[in-house]
Structure formats: C-alpha cells, structure tokens
Specification:
Layout lengths: L6 E5 L2 E4 L7 E4 L13 H23 L6 E10 L7 E11 L5 H15 L1 H7 L3 E9 L1
Parallel strand pairs: 5-6
Antiparallel strand pairs: 1-2, 2-3, 4-5
Helix pairs in contact: 1-2, 1-3
InterPro entries: KH_dom-like_a/b, OsmC/Ohr_fam, OsmC/Ohrsf
Protein name: Putative redox protein
Pfam families: OsmC
Length: 139
C-alpha cells in the first residue's frame, strides 16, 4: 500500500498538506524562522503522529477489552539534537489513564501491544530515537 500526500506552498513559509482522510492541515514556520506561526510545525507533527498512532491502538483495545477508562492522554517529550540536521534522538511517551476502576494490568497490556506490535509510527521512531515509555494511573 502506498500513501500519496501533496503539500502545496501557500507563499512565504506556509504550506498546506492534504491527507487521505480528506482533511488538510497547514504547516508554517514561527516568526523566528520567517513564518507567521499560523500552522503546525513539522517536527512537532511527528510527535502528534506518534501519539495519535499509539492512541488509536490503545483506544481500540480499551473498547475490545471492555475496560473502564474515564479519560486518557499521551504526553510526548522529545529531545532535539543540537547539530543540523536536527532530529529527535530520544523520546519519552507518557500514557495517562484516569478513572475510578482502572485495570492496570490490562491497560499495560494494551499499551505493550501498541508499542511492540501495532503502531507503525512507533516502529519508525525506533529507527532513529531511544524511546522511553511510562504509564500513569490516576484513580
């Protein structure tokens, strides 16, 4: 299967990128880099893709395992190298689960399945960054 994305220059430092979902997103540099800051930053989008990919897996598994979760969020904290080309050499992925009746063992299994088996974006990140995963249960 092939993905084909078209990213069109909007002038100055702004671009618009399409997506198979039919939704477009705007990319723009910040004022420090000659842009207007009216769009998303490319490197940060990679972190959103990582969290979104794993989050979709975990949400699907929460439903499949019939787990009680009131709320769920993922924080991704990445270290950018100093030298050009700058890239993320380490990323911490924090899974935060909220609820009064959390099944910690099954939630850990859901996260493990995502990070070890299902999440392709996680596998891509593994090729260039050290990944650290933590789970937080808030009852």
């Amino acid at each position: 299967m092939t993905n084909h994305i078209t990213t069109k220059w909007l002038g100055e430092m702004a671009f618009e990128s399409n997506n198979p979902s039919g939704h477009n997103l705007k990319i723009d540099a910040g004022p420090d880099d000659g842009g207007k800051g009216e769009g998303l930053r490319p490197k940060a989008l990679m972190l959103s893709a990582l969290a979104g990919c794993s989050g979709l897996d975990v949400a699907s598994l929460i439903k499949k395992m019939k787990l009680e979760v009131d709320d769920f969020s993922i924080d991704t904290i990445a270290n950018l190298t100093d030298e050009h080309p700058k890239y993320y050499d380490s990323v911490t992925i924090e899974y935060h689960f909220y609820g009064s009746n959390l099944n910690e063992a099954k939630l850990k299994k859901a996260v493990d399945l995502s990070i070890e088996k299902y999440c392709g974006v996680m596998e891509m990140f593994r090729r260039f960054a050290e990944l650290n995963v933590t789970l937080h249960f808030n009852k």
